[in-house]
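for ur thesis appendix - Lipid-binding SYLF domain-containing protein. copy paste whatever u need, i formatted it the way the template wanted (i think)
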Amino acid sequence: MKFKTIIATVLMIASTNIFAQSDKDKQVMADAEEAKMELQKMDGMDRFFNNSSGYVIFPNVGKGGLIVGGASGNGVLYENDMVQGMASLKKVDIGLQAGGQALTEVIFFETEEALNDFKDGNYELSANATAIAIDKGIAANANYKDGVAVFTKPKKGLMADLSIGGQKFEYDEMEK
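the 3d part is after this line
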C-alpha cells in the first residue's frame, strides 16, 4: 500500500511539472496554433515554415500610440514544429504615429545561431529592421535578412506609423 502511494505521488508531481503552464500560456498556445494554421495557408509562407531552424509566433500583438507609442504581446517558440517555450515582445517608439492596431507577428530564424541568440536573450529587432506585412502572397518574394525574416498580419484597427524604435524579447523555455 505504501509503495502505491509513493508511485501515485511521484506521478502526480511529474504530471504537474509537464502541465505547469498557466491558463494564460495555454490561451497563447491555442491562439498561436490558430495563427500558424492561417499563416500556412498564405502563398509563400510554407517555404519559411518548412526550412527555418525555428520560429516564434506572437498571435496577438497590441500596438498603439500618439507620438510616443508601444507594442506588446506574448508568443510561442517552435523548433522542428514542436513548442519549445514562451516568448514576450515589448516595443517603445517615438515619432509620427497615431492610432491603435492588433496584429499577428511571426519571426523565422534561418540558422541555429540566430535561433539560439533569441533563446539566449541576445536578440532584439533594431529600429531599422523591416517587417513585411503579409497579404495575398506577398511572402513568395520575401527573403531572410541577417538570418531572420519577420512578417506581420494586421487583425484589427488602423495606425499611421512613421516611428523609430526597436523590439525587445524575453524567452522562457518550457520545463520538460
